[in-house]
Amino acid sequence: MSESLATDTAKPLNGRLAPPRTARVVGLGHRLPDRVVPNGPIAERIGVDADWIVRRTGIRERRYAAPDERTSELATAAARRALQDARLKPADIDLVLVATMTPDELTPNTAPLVAEALGIGAGAYDVGSACTGWLAALSIGASQIETGRADAVLVIGAEILSRVIDPGDKRTAMIFGDGAGAVVLSADGEGSIGPIVLASDGGMGDAIIASHEDRIIHMDGHTTFNKAVKVLVESTQQACERAGVTLDDIDLFVYHQANGRILRSVGEKLELGDERVADYVAETGNTSAASLPLTLSLLREDGRLRPGQRLVLAAVGAGFTWGAGVVEWGLK
Questions:
Q1: Using CA atoms, how far apart are residues 272 and 268, in angstroms rounded to an integer?
Q2: What is the pTM assigned to this prediction?
Q3: Is 226 a residue of the active site?
C-alpha cells in the first residue's frame, strides 16, 4: 500500500491544497425492506424467463417496500444503525444529507423528516443527483468536516423505486429495488475520504427520465449502458490520479450497482480481478442513491471490508451525472 491519503495539515496534493483536516467514515448502516421479489413473477409479466433477466442484468432478486413504508422510514432506520455504529448521539450531528430521487412528497424534503425522527434539530436537506446522489452528498459532507463547518455529518442514500417503474416495461421492470444505506462522517477516527471528482452531461438528460406527468422511469438502455461504462472507467482513473495512487493500490472497487453487465464491463476495461469489484446487484437490484452505502454495509457484513483497505467509490446516474472518489477505510 502506498502512503496514506490522510492529512491533518494543509499540504499540496498533486498540485492542489489539501484540506485543513480529514473527513472519515466513523459509522455505517443499512436497511432493506422485508419483501423479497424474485425474478419469476416479473419475468412472467414481461414475457420472458427468469434466466433471461439474469443474463441481461445479473439480478436474481430485489427488495420492495411495503405499501405503507416510506423512503424517510428506510432512511431513518439506516441512519439509526450508522449512529449506533459510530457511538454518537443525535445531538452530536451537525448536518443531515439525504440523497434520493423518490422522496415521500414533492415537499418537504426527506432529510428534515429523517432528522425529526432521529431527534436531530440541525440543518437537513436532500441531494438530487439520481444514482450519483449519495457520492455527491458524500463530497458535500466531507467538505463540511474538512473546513470545520461541521464535526459530524449523516450522509444517507434511500430509495423506493418500486413505485416509479412500469411493471410491464421490459427495459426497466426487473432492474430496480428499494433500500437505504447511511454513513456518519467525522474528523475523529481512522481512515480518510480522499478526493472526489464529479461531472455531468445534461445533453443526455433524455436517456433516463421520469416526468411529473406520469412519474415513471423511462430509460434508453443501450445509450445508458455505453455511457455508464465509459464514464465509470474514466472517473475511476481520474480519481486515482487526483489521489496520487494507481489502480494497483486499490483493494476494492465499489461501483454503483446498476447491473451486472456494467460491473463486468468496467472491470474488464480496467483489467480488474472479479474479487476486487464489489457485486451485490444479484440480491439488491439497482437501488439508485442507496446503492453505494448499501454495498459498503453488505461488504462489511461479509467480512470483505476491513480497516486499512483503500477503496474507489464510483457512480453514474440520470442527468447524466457521474463521479468517483478514493477512500481509505478505517472503520472496523
A1: 6
A2: 0.94
A3: no
Q: What is the CATH number of the domain that holds 298?
A: 3.40.47.10
Angle subtended at Cα 282 by Cα 140 and Cα 270, rounded to the nearest 5 degrees: 65
| HEC assignment per residue over the chain | CCCCCCCCCCCEECCEECCCCCCEEEEEEEECCCEEEEHHHHHHHHCCCHHHHHHHHCCCEEEECCCCCCHHHHHHHHHHHHHHHHCCCHHHCCEEEEECCCCCCCCCCHHHHHHHHHCCCCEEEEECCHHHHHHHHHHHHHHHHHCCCCCEEEEEEEEEHHHCCCCCCCCCCCCECEEEEEEEEECCCCCEEEEEEEEECHHHHHHEECCCCCCCCEECHHHHHHHHHHHHHHHHHHHHHHHCCCHHHCCEEEECCCCHHHHHHHHHHCCCCHHHECCCHHHHCECHHHHHHHHHHHHHHCCCCCCCCEEEEEEEECCCEEEEEEEECCCC
**Catalytic residue list contains 286:** yes
Which residues span the domain enclosing 291? 191-328
- Please tell me whether residues 285 and 206 are part of one structural domain: yes
Residue 256 among the catalytic residues:
yes
The pLDDT tens digits of the residues spanning 102-118 come to: 999 999 999 999 999 99
**How many domains, in total, are found in the chain?**
2
Q: Considering 39, 131, 240, 259, which one is annotated as catalytic?
A: 131
Query: What single-letter amino acid sits at 12?
Result: P
pLDDT tens track for 11-46: 444 556 667 799 999 999 999 999 999 999 999 999
State which of 186, 212, 233 marks the end of a domain: 186
Say if residue 31 is in the same domain as residue 163: yes
